[in-house]
Amino acid sequence: MSEQAETLLDIRDLHVKFPLRSGLLMRTHATVHAVSGVSINVKRGEVLGLVGESGCGKTTLGRAVVGLAPTSGGSINFDGLELAGKDRDDVEGLAKKIQLIFQDPYSSLHPRKMVRDLVGEGLILNGIASGAEVDRLTLAMLQRVGLGVEHLYRFPHEFSGGQRQRIALARALVLHPDLIILDEPTSALDVSVQAQTLNLLKELKAELGLTYLFISHDLGVVRYMSDRIAVMYLGNIVETGPTRNVFDSPQHPYTRSLLAALPSIHPDQRKTRIVLEGDPPTPIDPPPGCPFAGRCPKVQPLCHEQKPVLAIAGPDALHLTACHDPDL
Amino acid sequence: MTDTAREDALKPEVVRQMRRDARKRYFQDSYTLWKRNPITMIGTITIALLILIAFIAPLLATHDPYEQILADRLFAPSAEHWFGTDNLGRDIYSRVVHGSRLTLMIAILVAVISGPIGLVVGVLSGYLGGWVDEVLMRISDVFLAFPKLILAVAFAAALGTGLENAIIAISVANWPGYARMVRAETLAVRNSDYIQAIRVLGAGRLRIMVGHITPMCMSTLIVRVSFDMGAIILIAAGLGFLGLGAQPPSPEWGLMVSDGRDYLVDQWWVSTLPGLAILIVVLGFNLIGDGIRDILDPHQRQS
Amino acid sequence: MTVGADKNNLLEVEDLAVRFYTLRGTVHALEDVSFKLGQGESVGLVGETGCGKSLTARAILRIVSPPGKIIRGNIRFEDKQLLELSEREIRQIRGNQISMIMQEPKMSLNPSMRVGKQVAETLMIHDKSLGKRGAYAQAVDMLNAVSIPDPKHMAKRYPHELSGGMAQRIMIAMMLVTRPKLLIADEPTSALDVTIQAQIIDLINNLIDDIGSSVLMISHDLGVVAETCDRVIVMYAGSVAESGLVRDVMENPQHPYTQGLLRTLPDAIDPGQPLYSIKGTVPNLMDEPLGCRFAPRCPQATDRCSSQKPPVYDVGPGHQVACFLHEATSPVAGTSVGVQL
Questions:
Q1: Which positions in chain A touch C258 (Cβ < 8 Å)?
Q2: If you measure CA to CA, which chain B residue comes closest to C23?
Q3: Contacts for A32 with CB less than 8 Å, ≥ 6 apart
Q4: Of chain C residues 134-163, which have a CB less than 8 A from chain A?
Q5: In 10 A of CB B234, how many CB atoms?
Q6: How many angstroms separate the CA atoms of B4 and B86, rounded?
Q7: Could C165 and A279 be called an inter-chain contact, meaning their C-beta atoms sit closer than 8 Å?
Q8: Which residue in chain A is spatially nearest to B205 when comparing CA positions?
Q9: CB contact under 8 A, C22 and B303
Q10: CA-CA distance, B84 to C89, in Å (whole number)?
Q11: How many inter-chain contacts (B to C, CB under 8 Å) are there?
């Protein structure tokens, strides 16, 4: 991947907040700060892995890009098109540019629609095809993802999890989008099915020239899939850089403990675990300062007062971390 | 598969055949689910019989349901008059048989009027939310504040007597319940992944509501309506009983029960036998509702 | 094949078979599952969705729900044959001598009862002599033992006020408060984040050492099993494929399925290479089980594999594999996969 690669998606200082309302007058009594000031970019043709634990805002970030979550500040620039602050219905042809694959293939397919209608819907909605052409294009894409003509007129409940995820992929790919946001596409699948799905995703990317924003909590999967990764904690990016650099020399204490927490199948390779104390805090009215300060084993007074910004860490200029004192 | 092979596989007649097969599988599964539950079978048979009787009522009737032979009044059930005769000497059996047409008509018309109203109001309210939801739900609250029967009686009285007005009155009392239920279903479905996925494909609100939310609400609505059929028939009978629904001499079952109330002690059959007909049909609809719920639930098909 | 009651084994499962009688036919969910669990040992039961690992646990506790039915087999727990006990006797064992931790802690806790009381309640059910106060005090101690901060306060909370990790700790407290001889943990960390998962794994490991319970850990995550268990049993499509010490199975897998499964993990592979994937799909359990269930997907299958059920071979100390590939080199261990350490 060259330095000059064109930036396809550029997110700057994005905020997504959900007010929590209660009482008779529905007054806002607290704010869920799901995404607080995230800046990332995805270059055409690359895979950016977005890792973090549940509730860190990675899914919300993905949804904000496709207009399913309301943004409350910052910008999302997609190929020269500003998406932040707009209703998704206002952006003409967005469906043909960005598609989203959901985590759970058991809930992302309409239970009463046949595969042909599920996959063909996008073609009809976006005026790409009609009539018999829909059947033809749908079948071509189904075959590409490893399904066949006999699956065209079946209901979702007749398929296994892996097959359903293939249908969801076909549904997105049939529109030939530039960017696909994959929100934990394999976490609902078994390992052997996961391997098939990941291989398919790689093949499709090479073949169709796709760009992926790959969201996952599984570090092994992200390492395998991504060119670069961004680690998210409590609505903030705490570390980002080329995959190899982040895995080989993690700079942020959170990334370090995350990597150390991974259980290994080889009893001899057991690492000295840095078991984090406590639970991740909730993103409801987060305190100022570093988001990780409450659980950080190396916390200092400054961490509670001032939020660190992403800065170059280590020898590679692309490897950034948001920590006041990463070397400690 | 090559392109020509793909063309072959997608010839219109092949596609049509595949669609047909898919539907056939769906019905086969439905049949298996239906067969599995004997109670549903009993309900279905009851209602099928009701429909059959309604269709061939003139063939089944032994007498003219309107013919009054005052000399034959209040005969007990016998070989000549299977269910006996009423106070005007009419054959009760023939009247019950002919009354099935009225009963069926009331049940179906009320369902056809109030079901769709509830569906539209519920989906709009649930999907659009905001002030649309507020306005529609406050209106339905007004209706829900009164018991159904009282509301139906009030409307029937205001509209004037007659079967048509009774049907309108019952429909008016009925839709808010459906609207509430459909709204709840819509709220549950609207944030599901599969609706979000359709949004990502670029579908507008109208398309989502009509094409994707409505089918999900249909099954619960159909189940609820089939459970309600019994209540509808009872309210219609009640209105008939109070003199607000069907008017004499029409052989409406509620009206017949009402006619017989003066003779309840000595000539029990005048009220009891039409009442029994109501009981059987109401029970039939309730049993069928249970089965429909199982059949329409996609989860049942997974196993 | 008669092994006799080996006093060192806490649990012996022999030839267990469970079938589901469904709409479309009979599902052969478990076929000839046999394994043993020693006193104080922790054993992992791994496999993919639908391989029967959770069902095995349910069969041990006799909570297989209809249309499922245990049709064959012996389950010996200490000196009792669990499948022969009356409903009343088995209830005495459930939750008292054998406890089970479920995957979704929040769904297993009563949402309308304070957690401290729930833990105390479990104690009182099984030890009637304990007074309300005594039970509650013990419950709070137990919360302390599962590293819940400020246990006195936390005991007064309702389940919805807890995070997933805390709720799982409460579940563990509840299940261990009766000091069961066997703890069955069904995917105890699958619903939790990695950093919390690490905490829970450590917690279970420590508590087990303290109480001396045996553990049957069910998981689809090979890493979790490798970190918590002494031995591992690999299941495929309702049968046991391989069993042995964690180190032997993970480092030196002998069954083609285990080999394939370990190779599909994306953790260790170079991102430039495609992941290994086992071809084909999981067999339809409706079909009559003839031969080895893995045969249609096995790269080394012979004609015999699809018609004849492979016996179990001893391939090393305590390492057993149900595969014909070892016929020439290893002795038959009988039809049951067990362990003679």
A1: none
A2: B303
A3: A17, A18, A19, A20, A282, A283, A284
A4: 149, 163
A5: 18
A6: 76
A7: yes
A8: A89
A9: yes
A10: 62
A11: 5
Neighbouring residues of A73: CB distance < 8 A, sequence distance ≥ 6: A13, A14, A15
The runs of H, that is alpha helices, within chain B are: 3-9, 12-36, 38-55, 57-60, 92-128, 130-144, 148-159, 163-190, 193-200, 205-207, 214-241, 253-259, 269-296, 298-302
The pLDDT value given to residue C335: 47
**Cα C216 to Cα C225: distance, rounded to the nearest angstrom:** 10
CATH class of the domain at B37-302: mainly alpha
**Max CA separation in chain B (angstroms):** 86
Residue of A nearest to B196 (CA): A68
Interchain CB distance below 8 Å, C264 and A270: no
DSSP state of A84: T
R_g over Cα of chain B: 24
CB-nearest to B200 from A66, A110, A114 is: A66
pLDDT in tens, C185-236: 888 877 777 777 887 888 888 888 888 888 899 988 888 888 888 899 999 9
Of the CA atoms within 13 Å of residue C150, those in its CB half-sphere come to 5
Q: Best interface-test mutation with A: which of C277, C285, C297 has the largest number of A CBs within 10 A?
A: C277
DSSP for C138-206 reads: HHHHHHHHTT-SSHHHHTTS-GGGS-HHHHHHHHHHHHHTT--SEEEEESTTTTS-HHHHHHHHHHHHH
Separation in Å, CA B45 to CA B11, B27, B200: 41, 18, 45
Q: Where residue A4 falls among pLDDT bands split at 50, 70, 90?
A: low
Q: Which residues of A touch C281 (CB under 8 A)?
A: 160, 162
A7-97+177-321: CATH class: alpha beta
Structure tokens at A203: 């093949």
- Which DSSP string do the residues of C214-238 spell out, in sequence order? EEEEEES-HHHHHHH-SEEEEEETT
Question: Of B9, B197, B301, which is closest to A157 when you measure between CB atoms?
Answer: B301
Dist CA A242 CA A229 (whole Å): 6
Residue closest to A173 by CA, chosen among A215, A209, A199: A209
Helix B92-128 / helix B163-190 crossing angle, nearest 10 deg: 40
> What residues of chain A lie within 8 A of the CB of C255, using their CB?
none
* Chain B residues inside the 8 Å CB shell of C23: 32-33, 36, 303
Residue type, A290: C
DSSP state of A275: P
Q: Which two tokens stand for residue A224?
A: 């395998």
Query: What is the ipTM metric for this complex?
Result: 0.84
Contact A97, A175 (CB under 8 A): no
Neighbours of A50 (CB within 10 A): 30
Question: What is the rounded average pLDDT of the residues C291-299?
Answer: 85
The residue of chain C nearest to residue A264, with distances taken between CA atoms, is C223
Tell me which chain B residues have a C-beta less than 8 angstroms from the C-beta of C22.
303
Residue B203, helix vs strand vs coil? coil
**CB spacing of B203 vs A154 below 8 angstroms:** no
With an 8 Å Cβ cutoff, are B199 and A111 in contact? Answer: no
Q: Which chain B residue has the Cα nearest residue C25? A: B303
Q: Do A110 and B194 touch (CB under 8 A)?
A: yes
> Per residue in A111-160, pLDDT tens?
888 898 899 999 998 888 888 888 889 988 998 888 888 888 888 888 88
Query: Nearest 10 degrees: CA dihedral of B120, B122, B124, B126?
Result: -160
Of B9, B192, B298, the CB nearest to A149: B9
As a whole number, mean pLDDT of residues B270-275 equals 88
| A253 vs A323: CA distance, rounded Å | 8
Of B22, B26, B196, the CB nearest to A68: B196
How many Cβ pairs closer than 8 A exist between chain A and B? Answer: 96
Q: Which value, in Å, is the radius of gyration of the alpha carbons in chain A?
A: 21
